[in-house]
Amino acid sequence: MVAHRIREVVGHGHRTREFSLIAISFIRTSTLAFATFANNGVYREGRTYSKVYNSKGEVVLDNTQESRKILSDKSVDYINYCLYNAATHGTGAAAIFGGQTIAGKTGTTSSQKDRWFCGYTSHYTAAVWCGYNNPEEIRLTGNTQNPGTTTPTSVVLTFNGNQLSTSVQDTGIKVEGNAFVITRGGSYELKGDLSNGQIKVAVPKTEQVELIFNNFTASCNTSAPLYIESADKATIVLAAGSVNTLTDATLYQFANPAEDKPNACIYSSDDMTIKGTGTLNVNGNYNNGIGCKNDLRIKDCTLNVTGVNNILKGNDSVEIENATVKLSGGEHYRLVYTKG
Questions:
Q1: Per mean pLDDT, which range of 3-17, 25-39, 162-176 is the poorest?
Q2: What is the DSSP string of 111-177?
Q3: Confidence of residue 24 (pLDDT cuts 50, 70, 90)
Q4: Which domain holds residue 37?
Q5: Is the peptide bond before 262 cis (omega within 30 degrees of 0)?
Q6: Based on the domain organization, do 181 and 298 belong to the same domain?
Q7: The pLDDT value given to residue 235
Q8: Residues 313-337: what's their mean pLDDT?
Q9: Whether residue 266 sits in one domain with residue 232
Q10: Nearest 5°: CA angle at 298, between 292 and 301?
Q11: What is the DSSP annotation of 170-220?
């Protein structure tokens, strides 16, 4: 890989570091290209500055940006649709944060030696490259996992009984009785043991939530230990090598007698995906083991589920792909589509 030496000033001295010209050039080119999609197919030449003024306020350099329409509106709509789904439902999900509509795409080279993400909102376009000047596999320090399987920006939630400690101060989590309510979209890593409590997701319908289970155990004596009340989409990621167990009550207590949801140990009112290379044990003692109002997707994980009525239930569909699933108990389960 071609590299260029750049002198970096440090204190009163300096040091020389090497940065890949290929990476720098690719980042610049990628942001220009992806910005075209966000700008309704209008390509604008990149620039470092717009104007330079002298001490008298006179313009001495005018770097007016040139632009031209290069994509039809129909083409832009198709591209934006594809990149939105790649970011929200595909490999770019880790880039999602609340309050913004985000589109983008990840990229890798052979043996995980380079990683990219190029994406955009309605206001900004960005490209990120991770790699080494002398190509080698990217790994986390002290960890055999590849960074592509983790989300460094996750808020870490560690439970000890009914006590919660967090990796950041402002999590947007509210405590309502024995429930810890997630009110903002984003990524949350759950660890430890939650005793007689509930994780409740109640975010705007335009926001997505990722829950990373990393040796997480939860039980609830009055309801479901995980209730996804509102979200655009919820994803449960089982961390590599982790064993996670959720157990619900035999009898649910509802604040309003007319309510009947949640009705499963893990219940989602919206689309839900369970994936990863860890193990999830679900002990459904009240009604269903895992329930989803819309589409339920299970991918790549090891899943052991018991239920009294439906073991797995997706009102629209249940899709299982390359997963090891053991179902026990229950009267029946609804499996609409299976592949892998």
A1: 3-17
A2: GG-EEEEEEE-SS-EEEEEEE-SS------TT--S-GGGS-TTPEEEEEEETEEEESSS---EEEET
A3: confident
A4: 3-46+65-138
A5: yes
A6: yes
A7: 94
A8: 78
A9: yes
A10: 135
A11: ---EEEETTEEEE-S-EEEEEEEEE-S-EEEEE--TT-EEEEEEEEEEEE-
